[in-house]
Amino acid sequence: MATNPYRPLSRGPVRRIGSTVLIYAVLIFGAVIILTPFLLSFMTGLKSPVQFSNTSSLSLPSPITWANFQELFGPDHNFISPIAVTVQMTVVILVVQLSCSILAAYAFARLSFPGRDIIFWAYLATMMIPAVTTIVPLYGMFTAAGLRNTFWALVLPTLFGSPYAIFLLREYFRGVPDDLEAAARIDGCGTLRVLWYVVIPYSRPIIATLTVITVVSHWNNFLWPRVITSGPDWAVLTVATADLQSQYNGNWTLVMAATTLALLPLIVIYLIFQRQIVNSISIGGFK
């Protein structure tokens, strides 16, 4: 029996094509919603105050001016100091916090000691306490210790580990094959050598993800630096930008230039670590 060469396509491929188009349309719409504020911030920073007030906020800067960025680094604002303080604070917190979190997570995941699970869940329960509730006690402690308006006041509260980081690393370390650790111990490795040569290389994706999360959270930290510091000596980038906004309430082009300046390092860091972040998500989902 001859088949009909003009038989219409089955509904299966058509439905798959339609669902794919719908998914991509939703993703594109979401990307536009998320990226538009950043694009508007950058475009506003490239406009003069007169151009910003006389044109639509969605219009492209014409002509492009870099005067706002130059003014930020001028003698009136001197944004070099807030950037330097923010970089120092973020780097110190990242290195020490990540090191302490890795050591604690390995102890909770791979070592046996009395009360291990009780200590872990009690420490993890501190994530349920809002950070705002600890601001006043911390302020009193650092003021009594004479550390107010110092660099150590910026870094000490979050320096020695993070409950979220320890929880995430612990769950990942528990997935390290026991055979790898056993083989390393047969070769004569102690606990620290096993951690350094086996567990950490195996966990690079999740460590890269935590690196990005830690940098972003502390680079954008505002409340604690605002409370514990005063004056320009130890002002971080977020505080300096807030002071700029309150001091020059009508000059939004200058404020948006400062905001764009604060965003650029985070975008660069994400572009560097994006593959490791995707790998950590895919490996975690596979497990």
From TrEMBL:
Keywords, in A-Z order: Cell membrane, Membrane, Transmembrane, Transmembrane helix, Transport
A GO CC term assigned to this protein in UniProt = plasma membrane
Say if the entry is tagged with keyword Glycoprotein.
Answer: no
A Pfam family hit: BPD_transp_1
Any one of the GO BP annotations: transmembrane transport
Source domain of life: Bacteria
Q: Where in the cell? A: Cell membrane
Transmembrane segments in this chain: where? 21-43, 79-106, 118-139, 151-173, 194-216, 252-273
The cross-references to InterPro entries, in alphabetical order and at most eight, read: MetI-like, MetI-like_sf
Membrane topology per record:
Multi-pass membrane protein
Any idea where the ABC transmembrane type-1 domain is? 83-273
Q: Which family does it belong to?
A: Belongs to the binding-protein-dependent transport system permease family.
Instruction: Return the protein name.
Output: Sugar ABC transporter permease
In its UniProt entry, the species of origin is given as: Microlunatus endophyticus
